[in-house]
């Protein structure tokens, strides 16, 4: 069965609900046990109070009986039946209270504990033996045998001591058992708090783990798709998305792979078409330019001024068409990574000085100023001189083209670590922020007054970017509208051990990462 994102989410919700129910049942069971533990502790305290009450009642009985015994033994209390009846009634009432309290303790959960039950049994035996002594003495008095009653009273002290010992032992045992129950209840409460914290923390971790797992699965898939789309946007149609899951992202990846493959085929067809068409157009364009030159030289016959004006238009457009064809061919070769790069130690300052001289007529015509700043110890760069000249010429020509009359163009070269950075800054109106991310795209032209009077093919900066990256450098642009634009690129210095080796035709090169601006 295909595990879709919806099913994953449903399974996660079911697991969380199941975990919550299990935790709730566990906590409910522990609450019930804690309630029972608290109830036992309360019952123990209550029975301890009853046992203390029993102790008081028994002590009262012992005092009454002890006084009676003393009177009889001293002969100060005549064996009156009425007196004996009064004392017997009082003792029976206290006995009834004592027995009632003993029964309440006996039937309680506290009284069912083995230690308490044993102590209670010893107390009952001691009470029974002492009661038997007094009951027999009372019977003898009622029978008119006072001397025998006094003799019976002489046996009072031994069972009385046993009763006192049994009562003391019961009190001590009851107190110890009660403290044990209360301590166990407190410990259980602490354990319950800890276990509840562990269970709730475990549930929280489980829910977070499921959310993170699902989020990680989605993020991983989206990252792979995003990487493929970014590669396609950079012109790399060889990128493919591989997603192991069997969800909607896998279907999306399959569709994306098919689309990218189709785009790659179309791009290859387009590049091949442009290359062939451009190559085939070179010969007729060259013939057209040659014919225009012959006509301009008066062959086969001199031209009138109007004819020369029309011929100049033909020559200008033929040159423009030739430049476009050359740019298309260069772009096709660069995108196919079949350009010839032959790096060698190159003096970039000398190259810039020669290029500045080549644009002197146009600079003079527009009354521009060109300044160049670079340290005297600027190292040589490892670059193809022809390709580096092409890069600098393109950037310098653009600066001259877009800088208004009477303004300044600044060139700066300086070492930055293992690279040399060169910058060309014009004083034009600048590039709008929304156009900066696309300035190096093929056929892209800024739709503003910057290009209203100066049209180009939109391929120059694309070629520059490819050539810079083919040397292992980076290129970027910064601009403030109304103040101009600055194009900067880097080239590796010549004594670096990792500089690019010369590329032969057909050998692919690795492109540097695009600059961040």
Notes on the structure:
The protein is α+β, with helices and mostly antiparallel strands and 517 residues long. It is 65% helix and 8% strand. It has helices at 5-74, 81-107, 114-142, 146-153, 157-233, 248-296, 305-335, 348-358, 360-365, 385-402, 460-470; strands at 344-346, 369-373, 381-383, 408-416, 419-425, 475-480, 484-492. The protein has a 5-stranded mixed beta sheet. Strands 1-3 form a two-stranded antiparallel sheet. Strand 6 (475-480) and strand 7 form a beta hairpin. Helix 1 (5-74) packs antiparallel against helix 5 (157-233) and helix 6 (248-296) packs antiparallel against helix 7. It is rod-shaped and about 180 Å long. The chain starts with a helix and ends in a 25-residue tail after the last strand. Mean pLDDT is 76; it is low at 499-517.
Oligomer: single chain
Q: What sort of overall outline do the alpha carbons produce when their principal axes are compared?
A: rod-shaped
Q: Return the structural class.
A: alpha+beta
Q: What series of H and E elements makes up the topology?
A: HHHHHHHEHHEEHEEHEE
Largest sheet: 5 strands, mixed
Distance between the termini: 47 Å
Point out poorly predicted stretches: 499-517
Let me know the average pLDDT: 76
The total of helices stands at 11
Number of strands: 7
Order of adjacent strands in the largest pleated sheet: 2-4-5-7-6
Percent helix, as a range, is 55-70%
What is the radius of gyration computed over CA atoms, rounded to a whole number of angstroms?
55 Å
Which percent range describes the beta-strand content?
5-15%
